[in-house]
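INPUT
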Amino acid sequence: MAERAFAVAIVGATSLVGEEIIRLLGERQFPAGEVRALGSPKTAGRQLEQATIGLVGPDAFRGVDFAFFAVGPMVASAHAHDAVRAGAMVIDCSSRYRRDDGVPLIVPEANARLLDVAAPPTLVASPSSTAVGLSVVLAPLAEAAGLRRVLVSTYQSAAGAGRRAVEHLSKESIALLSGRGDDDVAMRRAFNCVPQVGTVEIDGVTSHERAVADEVRRVLALPELAMHVTAVRVPMFFGMGATVLVELERPLDRATATTVLRSARGLIVHDDTDEGVALPTPADVVGSQATHVARLHEDRSVAHGLALWMALDSIEKGAALNAVQIAEVLLRRVR
Ligand SMILES: NC(=O)c1ccc[n+]([C@@H]2O[C@H](COP(=O)([O-])OP(=O)(O)OC[C@H]3O[C@@H](n4cnc5c(N)ncnc54)[C@H](OP(=O)(O)O)[C@@H]3O)[C@@H](O)[C@H]2O)c1
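OUTPUT
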């Protein structure tokens, strides 16, 4: 018997994340009979390779089974419930629903079980790319030895802030390399590091840093986890890296931690004890569907401490792939 084909809508088909979702649906052979690209009045009517962009609106979701939202939180807020009312299962990549108790926040490698229920949810949120990578790495460590405290420093590319930020970094880099000044730039991004991702809040923490810690606590179901994040924008176009310091509840030596992470889903652990083994830099992992770990070692400055380097493609595993994996789990429930 022929398998059922599903109608899939992508709101924000022109976004970095939306484009990648469309590509992954094809690559992973998601049973999409129709791929409906939706966008703003600016791009409605534009022809993409697979579809013509339609205008997002209350009537745009008729007949849609799965709707991916790869737009900002305000656009998601305005239209996600139209899609739910039309009968679609919505996967939202924006920050809009990440804190809503009634909306599961999912990283399939860590908590797909929340979708394994008799009546699957009609709206699911996908975390920020930093929280996705951290959840993939921390979930197996939490299970093996418990987490006491996590300290993270991230190095984030322009892509994390969307297509315009990538274009801006490109223009600014060219201007500086051409000997032209950057007088009209409020904060220089090219050839610089900016210790601010999101807005700085009254206590000095940025909105992004606070959100990442909250999202990881939610995904791991560890609401009291002591965690601190520092996020730095660095002059890369794509990819992201992070140093992660973990204090465990119970001892876990380097060899056992390596085995634990090697047997976890979605992770590639690079063995850097051999001379000449390349470390996974953000540039190396662009296009990879895995979260990469290297430099795993014991941090002897604390009891049961581990330190590691993590790198991932923030658009791929950090957003688009995570969203498609969520849809694949939901698909198994509705098929
Ligand atoms: N970039 C990342 O690494 C990353 C990681 C995780 C999650 N996310 C989240 O994923 C979402 C997309 O991020 P992105 O970086 O891929 O975005 P982006 O490249 O900046 O693209 C923004 C998108 O928003 C659409 N849009 C703007 N106003 C609209 C409106 N009024 N109606 C319909 N569409 C509208 C644009 O569509 P038009 O071209 O049609 O105007 C465009 O497709 C965001 O919520 C972001 O926080 C991003």
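end of record. Residues 316-334 form the longest helix (19 residues).
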